[in-house]
Amino acid sequence: MENNQKLSEKFHEVLQHEGVVSIMSWGVEPHLVNTWNSYLVTTEDERILIPAYGFRKTETNIAVNPVIKMALGSKEVLGYKDYQGTGFMIEGTVKFLETGAEFDMMKEKYAWLTRVFEVTVTGIKQML
Questions:
Q1: 82 exposed, middle or buried (CB, 10 Å; 0-12, 13-18, 19+)?
Q2: Cα–Cα distance for residue pair 110/44, rounded to 1 Å
Q3: Domains of the chain, earliest start first
Q4: What is the DSSP secondary-structure string of 106-126?
Q5: What is the pLDDT of residue 5?
Q6: DSSP codes of every residue in 83-105
Q7: CA 57 → CA 64, 119, 123, distances in Å?
Q8: CB 3.0–4.6 Å: which of 13, 26, 47, 127 could bond 30 by disulfide?
Q9: CB under 8 Å to 124, separation ≥6 — which residues?
């Protein structure tokens, strides 16, 4: 994984198209949870905020190990050498937000959330 933490223009372009986001956590036991590209909100300081309703096994895992890996992409965005589709692998550390300005902003967008899943990106690599 590249040690780049910058969320590129291509990454933001992918977020403009719907696709599945898979998030892998491990701590108590390996667990995979999914969400949608359209739910990801990026901050000025390059964090990723995701509305969480479930994510209970993920929450149990990050209490032991706050490191996650996630993958997302879109067939609608050209990748390397004009390949039809691209995606990203991301490593990061996470925590759940239950209060504060960012929680309130996300609650305005997604009334159903119970917490905000905050990802601090430690590595990102474009695939394809």
A1: exposed
A2: 20
A3: 9-127 (2.30.110.10)
A4: HHHH-TT-SEEEEEEEEEEEE
A5: 72
A6: -EEEEEEEEEEEEEE-SSHHHHH
A7: 11, 16, 23
A8: 26
A9: 1, 2, 4, 5, 6, 7, 8, 11, 88, 89, 90, 91
Q: Which residue has the tokens 């879109």?
A: 74
Contact 92, 70 (CB under 8 A): yes
List the structure tokens of 47. 């964090």
Query: Would you say how long the chain is, in residues?
Result: 128
pTM: predicted TM-score of the whole model, two decimal places: 0.94
d(CA 37, CA 50): 9
Distance CA 111, CA 5 (A): 30
Own/partner pairs for 34-38, CB < 8 Å, 24+ apart?
37/72, 37/74
